[in-house]
Amino acid sequence: MPELRQNRFTKEWVIIATERAxxxxxxxVNRPEVKPLPSYSPTCPFCPGNEQLAPxxxxxINGPDGKWRARxxxxxxxxxxxxxxxxxxxxxSKRTINGVGMHxxxxxxxxxxxxxxxxxxxxxxxxxxxxxxxxxxISRDPRITQVTIFKNHGTAxxxxxxxxxxxxIAAPVISHQVRDRMFEALRHYDEFGECIFCQMIAEEIxxxxxxxxxxxxxxxxxxxxxxxxxxTHIYPRRHMASFGDVSxxxxxxxxxxxxxxxxxxxxxxxxxxFNYTVRTAPSExxxxxxxxxxxxxxxxxxxxxxxxxxxxxxxxxxxPEAAAEFLRNANADKAxxxxxx
Length: 341
Ligand SMILES: [Zn+2]
Ligand SMILES: [Zn+2]
Known about the structure:
- Strand 5 (88-91) and strand 6 form a beta hairpin.
- Helices cover 27% and strands 23% of the residues.
- The chain is built from seven helices and 15 strands.
- The protein is globular.
- It starts with a strand and ends with a helix.
- The chain has helices at residues 121-139, 176-192, 196-207, 248-269, 306-311, 320-329, 334-340; strands at 3-6, 13-16, 57-62, 68-74, 88-91, 94-97, 102-107, 146-153, 165-171, 211-214, 218-221, 232-236, 274-279, 294-299, 314-316.
- The structure holds zinc ion (2 copies).
């Protein structure tokens, strides 16, 4: 019998289609032979030597060799405008706000072909450090209330440029999705006096059915009511509402943790397209006891279709427990793939 599971953080229901469940390896991408990307593309605005094509640079993080590892630049096709005031207008039933905000691109390294899964751990930490430094600075701008950091990898995930990059959009409003999750977490805290995420993390580590890996500071797991195959969350083990509260020591561990997870997806499922996003409490709620920031990694292995759009309910064809077991056993780097033959 299929099973409906409730996502306690959103109250949404998911159909776990155990009857037509697929073995995780059936979702392997099996790409037709594609030409590997070159490590340098002369027309790419993010490749070294073309820095003048991505005009405004906000931050540059160099590696020990003195060359840049991460650059943060203005998005040439920004969704929001950096200048002006977010004036709110209410006119009869219509509400509008001037489209003020920031839209930045984090270029994740000089090599055009090296996706996160193939980078050294400490390079991934440099990318995460760029996120944190921009998050901190932008959060101090009084016009900004919500900062979203995300990555689109591959065309099915919405990436339009090949060169590895992620993005940050800072908006003058808090979205309904974020508000809703904050409210649900607050309701749980009011009733039980504890963070709903801390409670879940302790339970998941104890049950050990959906945990992919545990490091000094983070736990990687498949959510119980996972909406799509291989949706994977990375939670800090210490309670923290805001991404802005992460320490440098934790960022070093997170570089290793995120790289390892993306490596397992890359080698285990043949480089699937994916999105990831940092889900943090808005900065005005930094320090609250009821919310817990995390990273959500969503491989794009299946398509969202009519039922999902019409009902807001997802059908997941891979058991989260089976996905966790698959990822626990998947090799995370080239050396171990070759050793396994
Ligand atoms: Zn490039
Ligand atoms: Zn917590």
